[in-house]
Specification:
Blueprint lengths: L1 E6 L3 H16 L5 E7 L3 E3 L13 E3 L1 H6 L3 E4 L1 E6 L4 E5 L5 E5 L2 E4 L3 E3 L16 H13 L11 E5 L3 H18 L6 E6 L13 H11 L1 E5 L3 E5 L2 E4 L4 E3 L2 E4 L3 E3 L16 E2 L12 E3 L4 E2 L13 H20 L12 E5 L5 E5 L4 E2 L5 H15 L8 H6 L9
Parallel strand pairs: 1-2, 1-9, 2-5, 9-20, 11-12, 11-17, 12-13, 19-21
Antiparallel strand pairs: 3-4, 6-7, 7-8, 10-18, 14-15, 15-16, 22-23, 23-24
């Protein structure tokens, strides 16, 4: 029995597993086992971690895995031996075990890059479900503190996608905790020269309008130099008193990828070929946030998002099986790129293309409904009680975005 081992139960890992099983069934093969290794049999819906009630954002996967005959192994990978084709992992109790593979799919995701900065231990983030829950607990605890400017101020470090969605959601979250009459201040600190610089000119007007309506401030051309329990010091010398600092700056591929031979980009993502096989590697594929993958023929590459992780998983699982059983692989292609940016109580903005030009639905309320549908329906896993539909959804040829 040959084995495909997938590391990670995020969007890329889940869809790699489903696609692998689909390809095996299409070819009536029962001589390949699909194994998925992850700390929990759960899909943590990371794109929603800026919202409240984060404890509800873990979708169970065990029943789905059982329905499609994916072997789930609970544990955390820590060592990859490419020569022996073995992966060592630790169980919840700390016991060290290992799994072999014929093909390995790296789908272990990305991590927030916390810099070696004075006071970094004081910052919160929305990177993982546990850290987002810690932030939520902290925000609720603010109601027990004296009413001061520092209590009522939140600094968001980073004006990228995560920073913007977090910052624009905060006014409503804070008012639900501190009351409608509280004098609130939400400040985004970003090194870009203009509001939303990381997302481009096309989407900027909507971000500016939303932030003005919500009272979200921006300090551009600056970075956080240090943090303490009472606030932040910026590199321009400005001091902001704040009881809450949220870090959203910079993501990098899971450090586990450093054990895979191959070229990497500046975020640590593994360069892959058109079939999503790590270039120069005999047995390893990469999908999701760990893959530096060309998604079209004009120089655009997949970004760290579920929009790309889901189809990358579909192709990686399909192609890993195809190679093992001797059928033709499918070349990854995802030329369409869209953005649906949540802008809190103001609404949302939908764009198409890598230049992020605003497209229908242009109405902010309609875009908000679309964002809600994406977040609560489209990115969730298939139902376990319809095996055929779950596998059909893993077809790499399904149009995305």
């Amino acid at each position: 029995m040959k084995n495909i081992l997938i590391i990670g139960a995020g969007f890329a890992g889940l869809w790699s597993a489903l696609s692998a099983v689909r390809q095996l069934e299409l070819n009536a093969r029962k001589d390949v086992e699909v194994t998925l290794l992850a700390p929990q049999a759960e899909l943590h819906v990371r794109p929603r971690f800026y919202e409240p009630d984060v404890h509800t954002m873990a979708a169970p996967l065990q029943a789905l895995f059982e329905a499609v005959n994916v072997r789930f192994v609970q544990g955390t990978a820590f060592h990859i031996d490419e020569a022996a084709r073995r992966v060592r992992y630790r169980t919840q109790s700390g016991t060290e075990c290992e799994l072999g593979y014929d093909r390995l799919i790296m789908a272990c995701g990305s991590v927030l890059n916390r810099p070696d900065m004075v006071g970094i231990e004081h910052v919160f983030d929305v990177d993982k479900i546990d850290s987002a829950a810690r932030l939520e607990t902290h925000l609720k605890s603010l109601a027990n503190l004296p009413d001061t400017p520092a209590r009522n101020t939140v600094v968001v470090a980073g004006g990228g996608f995560t920073g913007i969605e977090t910052a624009t959601e905060l006014p409503a979250r804070l008012r639900s905790i501190l009351g409608e009459q509280a004098t609130l201040r939400v400040v985004v600190i970003d090194r870009g020269a203009r509001v939303g610089a990381a997302l481009g000119d096309g989407i900027r007007p909507a971000i500016e309008q939303a932030c003005e309506a919500l009272g979200v401030e921006w300090i551009c051309g600056a970075t956080v130099a240090s943090v303490d329990p009472d606030g932040v010091l910026l590199d321009n010398g400005q001091r902001i008193d704040a009881s809450t600092v949220i870090w959203t700056v910079g993501f990098k591929a899971n450090p586990l990828t450093e054990q895979i031979s191959g070229e990497r980009d500046r975020q640590g993502r593994l360069h892959v070929d058109g079939n999503l096989k790590v270039k120069g590697n005999d047995a390893v594929y990469a999908a999701g946030d760990v893959a530096y993958a060309a998604c079209d023929e004009v120089g655009n590459h997949a970004v760290m998002s579920c929009q790309h992780a889901i189809p990358l998983g579909r192709y990686a699982g399909n192609n890993a099986v195809a190679e093992l059983i001797g059928v033709a692989p499918m070349t990854y292609s995802q030329p369409k790129y869209v953005t649906c940016l949540d802008l809190g109580a103001w609404g949302a903005v939908y764009t198409e293309g890598w230049e992020r030009q605003v497209s229908p639905p242009e109405d902010k309320a309609e875009a908000k409904l679309l964002k809600s549908q994406i977040n609560t329906v489209w990115i969730y896993p298939p139902a376990a009680n319809d095996r055929a539909a779950a596998l059909a959804a893993a077809d790499p040829t399904i149009p995305v975005a």
